[in-house]
Amino acid sequence: MKQKPEAKPVNILREIEANKIAPVYLLCGKETFLIEGTLKQMLDKILPSDTRDFNLTFFDGNTVTVREILSNAETYPMMSKWRVIVVEEFPAFKAQKRSTSPLNAIRNAMQIETEDVDKCVTDTAKLLGVSTQQITDQHADFHSAVEEMSETLGGGLTEDVKTFFGRLPELAAQLDVHSESSGNDGDADTLLEWLQGDLPDTSVLIFTVKDEVSERNRIAKAIQEVGKYVSFDPLEKGPSLNRDPLYKKVVEKFATYNKKITPRAFEQLRSRTGGDMHTIAEAIDKIVNFVEDKQQIDELDIRNLVTQTTFDRIFDLTDAIGKRSTRQALKSLREVLASGQEPIPLTASIASHLRLTLQAKLIVSKKGMKPISNQMRYPDFTAKIFQPLADEIGDILPNSASYNIMKRNPYIAFKIFQTLHAFTTAELMTALEKTLEVEIQLKTTQSDGEVLLEQLVYDICDSSKHQWN
């Protein structure tokens, strides 16, 4: 069961304004711009500017010790009600990068059980994301981690692995308790113990992590018990432009400069930045500086001032594939690869585009709709086709925008609906199967990714091919 953060940015800011300040916060997620913005607003509300220098401390989580963090948290503020400690990128929140599969890691631990019990237990504890003490105590988090590991492996724990997990608490009990109190694990245990004790009522400890934090992370769970845990995910597209949270934020930002942006210019801005708030904020600053007294931002401004991102190049690639334009697709593919994009995520983007195209194809067939003319304007498509379909069937389709064309950027849907005539349903299904086969090859072999992708794109686009190898 995935744990959900209990708070939202707007809620914690309102609570701070009402003087309901938690002793500890965790701000995490992929949307780094929102993390930075929320942190700034929190500091502005908690600390007066005239005493901030005395009562605000920033730490790099990769170099600071927990002892330093807690020492500052226990220090009384100077000429202020609060002392604030901000810790950035604390390692205990980050998932361990695995160089081998979970099952292989478990078997490696089993092989050294008789030779090095200490390493056997600590390696398994890291793999499961729990402490050795939790294993010894047969804590609920330990049993939950084992169940989740079983689900990750498709419920395929063999009997010998199940037996190993069964005797693991006994093995953990043999460890010297002092030996596990060093390094990052010891720091994490010390912090966890502090969070579960009596927290100071004059300090605010804020952790920021510019990435997702595992729902099983024990420190994140402890913070939820005593403070606030907020995850900042990319803003999902709203059901209409006026109810789109990203559009609202962009309009508000331009309004601070007494400027407006046209809907089509906004869609192009979103496309060129991939919807990343940090990139959008930088783009807006650049646009405002260049247009000077011009009050309305249009598509030409975006094209001239916002550079094409990797996201935009991938869009060009999938758009060319949708049109079965072999030459343009191969050109776009080489540009994307040259920009540093890895083959595996690029294959996933192609597969996603094919899924959405297949979904649109089935929607059109089910509704008995006429093909979309290339002369149809984007605003007409949004008003007459996309919005009515989103209202009617948007909630019937999968919740995730990754698998629901009615929850994607309307411009992406517009381009897909325009090219539905290029493929039959059978061709789309075959192309998707072929793409997934290439993705498996890239993950399991040492094949040249660029060669595999070029052949894949050529096979999908070449309309003269009626059979696939």
What topology emerges from the helices and strands here?
Elements: H1 9-17, E1 24-28, H2 32-46, H3 52-55, E2 56-60, H4 66-73, E3 83-88, H5 102-111, H6 117-128, H7 132-136, H8 140-152, H9 159-173, H10 183-195, E4 203-209, H11 218-226, E5 228-231, H12 245-255, E6 260-261, H13 263-273, H14 277-291, E7 296-297, H15 299-305, H16 310-322, H17 326-338, H18 343-367, H19 378-393, H20 410-418, H21 425-444, H22 449-461
Parallel strand pairs: 1-4, 1-5, 2-3, 3-4, 6-7
Helix pairs in contact: 1-2, 5-6, 10-11, 12-14, 13-15, 16-17, 16-18, 17-22, 18-21, 19-20, 21-22
Structure at a glance:
The chain has 469 residues and is an alpha/beta fold. Helix content is 57%, strand content 7%.
Please give a structural write-up.
The chain is of the alpha/beta class and 469 residues long. It is 57% helix and 7% strand. The protein has 22 helices and seven strands. A five-stranded parallel sheet has the order 2-3-4-1-5, sandwiched between helices. Helix 4 links the parallel strand 2 (56-60) and strand 3. Helix 5 (102-111) packs antiparallel against helix 6. It is globular. Residues 177-183 have low confidence and may be disordered.
Q: Keywords for this structure?
A:
alpha/beta, five-stranded parallel beta sheet
